[in-house]
Inverse folding.
């Protein structure tokens, strides 16, 4: 989080008070955040590098610290389609804490990307042991799933497509 | 709308036709009345033939073609096994397929047999039913192949046909109505026969396009253009049966019969007749005794004669 | 000016018709035809329905001979209202409105047409007919745009009105306050007595007729009988005489109706309503019209006829994405709520004159009085009386007059943007067109095609740019034009983006798909005076990377350091390394407050709703959250009625509205 935004800022720049660089971690209580950081590691991916494989066990729950990750589905004859991209501060791999713990899409780094990684098994064990962690992490995961759902719905509506009846 | 014929793009960007689009007119089970409507366009016919090449049109020319067609007008419903095969072949040879008239778009009056016992009708109507190779149902063309446009009515309205061809020539959307016949009645200052005289009239649920011809002559619309978008047939049928001031209540079957006309096989109309009755009886007694000597040993020649395909482009 | 109480003997009625017919004037009066009384051209008084009266109930009108009293057997005007009224003559069902012609060399002429026929006189108009005519005067020639055909027909219209001696059971002029007494709008007013007519002139033209006829003063007893007669008509319509008849309370009707747009009765009516449009066709104030294009086979000459249309037809509220009113209940609600409620906001009066034609001529007898009494029932206890949050009427900051002329312009440059979208640069020296402000639009006419509204995507010193998506034949044709082609523009039309609302404030611009086009001129204007505004942030959504508009321009904007540009696409292939997701996702990282933000949004309506939610959560004030709406438009100037959204004409009052102005109407289904 930028501590001292300066005005007038360049819009979208590091000190833009409109787009502040917060992450999902900022929503956690200091205790839970410290607990999670104690089991976290950092991982870096180059552009095009595979982060998660579709339908494979989800390796980790991650928080993007830099870069951009695309979630992709492979469509026969159309190749890989990017459904949504994830950016700094956002959650990746919610399926690490939701049964059956398998990735629902492929995740590929689109830019040089750094991720704060919470490996799946230790995290799940921690959530069983520490109900405070579970209580704060699960709503965050659900919010992420809900956002992805809303995005999918809107994409399903294909709002920018041309409609069939055309008066002109 | 599919662009007809090879095109070049001029300064105007219009799809300018370097060749005249090949237009055909064919018929299945029908009376030829819709095709005759084309011939009735006396004022426009010359200009139309300059713009379009009529390559298959049995009512007007003895030249024949099996395609390909840029535009094919199809009259009549599909009533025999051969017709079901032929329409599929024609579809494959056609860019823009347009059904014309109540038979082609809704099955026509012959679709009444759909709700009757086919065999009983055959033997009742024909002295030698073995000559008659017909399907148990008479179905609209759209039940067999994809239809690009419909011109409705029994027969079709000549203005609609001109508008359709003009739109095709200029590349614009044909302006075919989507509203009730009532709109045209009022635009033409025609007094409503339902309200003023208590007549039953299908105008409120029927697609406009006829210019309100029946109400203009003081009778109720019998729905030959078929149901319009969102036709509230239940309300109208209820009104005729129970609510309409005048000699009511009407017998439900009499109300059902109103909907069992030329487009009676179209979904919304059929639903009313299904519910209220009013169709002809399901079976008929043979009207004519069958002379045994008429039973054929082999099919008559007109069933095995050349199809249009074999007489391809034969010039007269 | 008023000449009171002359007497016209019955046998001299024909003299009056003859005087009206001088100077080639066409005279319209009630006639008996096809079993009903309607207005038609008459040549003499003998054409009038002498001795006939009518009885009418919902869904049935019948002629009666010699009733209600034998003594009145010779009366000419005892039939209450004619079914057609005078609308077919003042506002005909179909008139040539726009003609266009393209010469072989490509040059184009587009003309707006007006009536040129003989002047008209009407005999037998009723108080309700005159009330309806006054409504049409406000709608069709009250401005800012004037229907030239109506104005031409109306200019020299002579009206001989009749005060009703009988009322039909479907009449409710007393409820609407329009009759049966004729108080204004007529040149002559007749009261029919058994022996003749008490005549009073109410205009100079009327006085001249009285003079020409050399009418003697009526006897005081005759004047008294005439007065008593119309008073008796009034009493016959009262609740005291018809206690069982359907009635509704006109006081406060607008507010009660608008408070009940979600009443269950709408769906119930839809089970009976045929959506056949008869009520709108016989209604003397319904004015909605459509353009019917016809052309020769070459598409070189064409004519667009203005013809009666109706909010009950499927195509009425159609746009490229579908119809805004797919259900019968939506259409019935539009009709009733427009007529009795939003008409007040638009034209300062009710849209109903109480003639009852919509009741009598509904083929299934739906009675608006009954429906209104159920839907907009007077609230008995104050507890249930929810004060209606009716949004304020839009600010009319447009010009007092909007011209209807089409200006011929030249396509100077054609720039393909995407597979289906093209930008045309249109050269013009027309000062009005060059005075276009960002957010305004033009109607674009070429022969043989429907006339679409197109937003202006850039204003240059000597040209306008139109970015057009090929959504149908007309727009496809426009995108295929080549440089040098001529087309004709009506405009600039509509309310522009309120740039002044952004001065000294941060600006958020959100565009979805083709919605970027009307925002492009706004961005130009903001950057032209960059120092007047705070931070400017532009968020753009497109369907796929290939569907992005103005790609190079956006890249250039993104390279500036005084502007934030974020682009997202709905889906993409692997080659796209940018953002994927919906537009609202671009706001996920926003933690600032929108209190100092003015926002401009354009895109599909569903997208705009989502953006409004997000920006409202960020505390962007609804008064500073501006949208531009898309509706079906045929005229672009507030005359054809197609683009109505509640009380608004989207073409004239919009297309730019603030969220505060739209209120609940933004999300209401089927409006």
């Amino acid at each position: 989080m930028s501590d001292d935004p300066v005005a007038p800022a360049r819009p979208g720049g590091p000190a833009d008070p409109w787009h502040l660089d917060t992450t999902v971690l900022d929503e956690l209580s200091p205790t839970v955040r410290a607990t999670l950081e104690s089991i976290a590691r950092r991982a870096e991916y180059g552009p095009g590098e595979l982060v998660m494989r579709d339908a494979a066990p989800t390796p980790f729950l991650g928080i993007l610290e830099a870069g951009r990750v695309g979630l992709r589905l492979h469509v026969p004859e159309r190749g890989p389609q990017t459904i949504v991209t994830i950016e700094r501060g956002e959650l990746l791999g919610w399926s690490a804490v939701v049964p059956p713990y398998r990735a629902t899409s492929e995740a590929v780094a689109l830019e040089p990307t750094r991720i704060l990684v919470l490996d799946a098994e230790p995290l799940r064990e921690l959530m069983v042991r520490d109900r405070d962690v579970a209580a704060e992490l699960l709503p965050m995961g659900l919010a992420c799933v809900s956002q992805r759902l809303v995005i999918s719905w809107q994409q399903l509506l294909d709002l920018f497509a041309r409609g069939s009846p055309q008066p002109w | 709308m599919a662009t007809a014929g090879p095109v070049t793009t001029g300064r105007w960007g219009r799809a300018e036709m370097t060749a005249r689009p090949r237009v055909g007119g064919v018929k299945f089970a029908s009376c030829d009345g819709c095709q005759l409507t084309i011939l009735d366009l006396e004022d426009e016919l010359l200009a139309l033939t300059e713009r379009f090449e009529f390559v298959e049109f049995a009512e007007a020319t003895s030249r024949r073609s099996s395609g390909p067609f840029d535009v094919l007008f199809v009259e009549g419903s599909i009533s025999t096994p051969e017709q079901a095969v032929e329409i599929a072949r024609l579809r494959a040879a056609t860019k823009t397929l347009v059904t014309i008239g109540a038979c082609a778009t809704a099955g026509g009056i012959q679709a009444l047999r759909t709700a009757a016992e086919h065999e009983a009708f055959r033997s009742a109507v024909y002295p030698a039913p073995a000559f008659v190779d017909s399907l148990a149902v008479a179905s609209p063309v759209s039940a067999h192949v994809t239809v690009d446009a419909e011109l409705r009515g029994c027969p079709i309205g000549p203005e609609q046909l001109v508008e359709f061809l003009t739109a095709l020539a200029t590349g614009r959307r044909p302006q075919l109505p989507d509203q009730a016949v009532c709109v045209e009645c009022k635009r033409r200052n025609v007094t409503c026969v339902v309200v003023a005289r208590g007549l039953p009239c299908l105008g409120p649920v029927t697609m406009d396009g006829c210019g309100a011809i029946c109400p203009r002559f003081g009778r109720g619309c019998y729905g030959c253009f078929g149901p319009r978008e969102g036709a509230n047939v239940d309300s109208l049928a209820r009104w005729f049966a129970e609510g309409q001031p005048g000699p009511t209540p009407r017998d439900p079957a009499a109300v059902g019969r109103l909907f069992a006309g030329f487009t009676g096989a179209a979904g919304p109309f059929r639903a009313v007749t299904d519910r209220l009755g009013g169709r002809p009886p399901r079976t008929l007694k043979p009207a004519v005794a069958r002379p045994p000597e008429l039973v054929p040993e082999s099919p008559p020649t007109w069933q095995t004669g050349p199809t249009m395909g074999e007489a391809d482009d034969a010039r007269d | 000016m008023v000449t009171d109480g002359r007497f016209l003997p019955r046998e001299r009625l024909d003299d009056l018709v003859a005087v009206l017919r001088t100077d080639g004037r066409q005279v319209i009066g009630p006639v008996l035809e096809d079993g009903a009384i309607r207005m038609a051209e008459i040549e003499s008084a003998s054409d009038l329905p002498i001795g006939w009266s009518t009885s009418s109930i919902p869904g049935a009108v019948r002629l009666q001979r010699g009733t209600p009293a034998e003594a009145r057997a010779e009366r000419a005007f005892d039939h209450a209202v004619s079914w057609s009224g005078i609308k077919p003559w003042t506002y005909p069902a179909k008139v040539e409105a726009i003609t266009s012609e393209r010469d072989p060399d490509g040059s184009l002429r587009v003309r707006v047409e007006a009536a040129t026929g003989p002047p008209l006189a009407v005999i037998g108009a009723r108080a309700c007919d005159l009330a309806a005519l006054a409504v049409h005067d406000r709608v069709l020639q009250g401005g800012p745009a004037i229907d030239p055909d109506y104005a031409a027909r109306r200019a020299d219209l002579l009206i001989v009105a009749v005060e009703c001696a009988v009322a039909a059971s479907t009449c409710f002029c007393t409820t609407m306050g329009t009759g049966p007494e004729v108080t204004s709008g007529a040149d002559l007013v007749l009261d029919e007595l058994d022996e003749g007519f008490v005549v009073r002139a109410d205009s100079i033209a009327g006085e001249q007729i009285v003079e020409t006829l050399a009418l003697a003063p009526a006897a005081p007893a005759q004047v008294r009988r005439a007065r008593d007669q119309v008073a008796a008509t009034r009493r016959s319509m009262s609740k005291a005489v018809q206690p069982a008849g359907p009635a509704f309370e006109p006081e406060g009707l607008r507010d009660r109706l608008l408070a009940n747009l979600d009443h269950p009765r709408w769906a119930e009516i839809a089970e009976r309503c045929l959506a056949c449009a008869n009520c709108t066709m016989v209604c003397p104030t319904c004015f909605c019209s459509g353009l019917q294009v016809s052309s020769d086979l070459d598409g070189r000459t064409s004519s667009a006829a203005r013809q009666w249309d109706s909010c009950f037809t499927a195509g009425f509220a159609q746009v490229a994405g579908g119809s805004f009113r797919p259900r019968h209940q939506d259409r019935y609600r539009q009709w009733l709520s427009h007529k009795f409620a939003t008409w007040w906001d638009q034209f300062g009066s009710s849209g109903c004159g109480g003639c009852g034609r919509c009741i009598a001529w509904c083929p299934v007898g739906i009675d608006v009085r009954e429906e209104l009494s159920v839907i907009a029932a007077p609230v008995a206890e104050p507890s249930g009386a929810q004060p209606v949050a009716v949004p304020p009427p839009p600010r009319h900051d447009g010009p007092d007059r909007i011209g209807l002329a089409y200006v011929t312009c030249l396509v100077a440059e054609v720039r393909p943007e995407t597979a289906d979208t093209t930008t045309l640069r249109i050269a013009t020296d027309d000062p009005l067109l060059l005075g276009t402000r960002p957010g305004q639009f033009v109607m674009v006419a070429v022969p043989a095609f429907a006339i679409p509204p197109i937003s202006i995507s850039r204003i240059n010193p000597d040209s306008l740019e139109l970015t057009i998506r090929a959504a149908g034949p007309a727009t496809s044709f426009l995108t295929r034009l080549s440089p040098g082609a001529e087309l004709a523009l009506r405009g600039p039309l509509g309310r522009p983006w309120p740039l002044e609302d952004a001065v000294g404030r941060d600006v958020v611009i959100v565009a979805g798909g083709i919605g970027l086009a009307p925002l492009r001129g706004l961005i130009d204007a903001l950057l032209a005076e960059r120092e007047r505004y705070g931070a400017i942030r532009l968020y753009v959504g497109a369907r796929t990377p290939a569907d992005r508009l103005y790609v190079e321009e956006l890249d250039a904007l993104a390279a500036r350091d005084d502007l934030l540009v974020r682009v997202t696409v709905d889906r993409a292939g692997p080659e796209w390394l940018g953002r994927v997701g919906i537009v609202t996702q671009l706001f996920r990282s926003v933690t600032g407050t929108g209190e100092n933000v003015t926002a401009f949004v354009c895109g599909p309506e569903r997208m705009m709703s989502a953006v409004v939610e997000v920006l409202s959560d960020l505390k962007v004030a609804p008064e500073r959250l501006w949208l531009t709406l898309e509706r079906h438009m045929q005229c672009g100037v507030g005359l054809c009625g197609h683009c109505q959204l509640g009380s608004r004409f989207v073409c004239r009052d919009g297309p730019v509205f603030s969220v505060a102005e739209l209120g609940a109407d933004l999300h209401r289904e089927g409006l």
The mean pLDDT of chain B is 81.
